[in-house]
Amino acid sequence: MIIVDFNLDEHMNGAEVAEQIRGILRYTPPTIMLTGDLSNAEFPCVTGAPVWLNRKPMNPQLLLAALPGLIELSRATRALTR
């Protein structure tokens, strides 16, 4: 599971960080992108991974409730692409 802020700095965003992690791991873990302003955020795309874009601050109970579904979706996606 990758949890990353979408807006990092002028050189890189959260989707780019997730892609770099994907390259290192050679698979893509499910990714949660956080942003303070959903109206200005581009929808992030991470190759081969379920991505959930959510507004900061994120409710911890919502995060915990979402993890099993995101992990299962990631496993199913990997199984279909093998």
Low-confidence stretches: none
Mean pLDDT: 83
Write down the secondary-structure element order: EHEEH
- Separation of the first and last Cα atoms: 20 Å
Shape: globular
Helix content: 40-55%
Counted beta strands? 3
Q: For the largest beta sheet, what order do the strands appear in spatially?
A: 1-2-3
Counting DSSP H or I runs of 4 or more residues, the number of helices is 2
Q: What kind of sheet is the major sheet?
A: 3 strands, parallel
Gyration radius over CA: 13 Å
Structural class: alpha/beta
Strand content: 15-25%
Describe this structure in words.
This protein is 40% helix and 17% strand. It has helices spanning 14-25, 60-80, and strands spanning 2-5, 31-35, 51-55. The protein has 2 helices and 3 strands; from the N terminus they run E-H-E-E-H. The longest helix is centred in the last third of the chain and has 21 residues, at 60-80. The model has no long low-confidence stretch (mean pLDDT 83). A 3-stranded parallel β-sheet has the order 1-2-3, covered by helices on one side. It is globular and about 35 Å long. The chain starts with a strand and ends with a helix. The protein has 82 residues and is α/β, with parallel strands linked by helices.
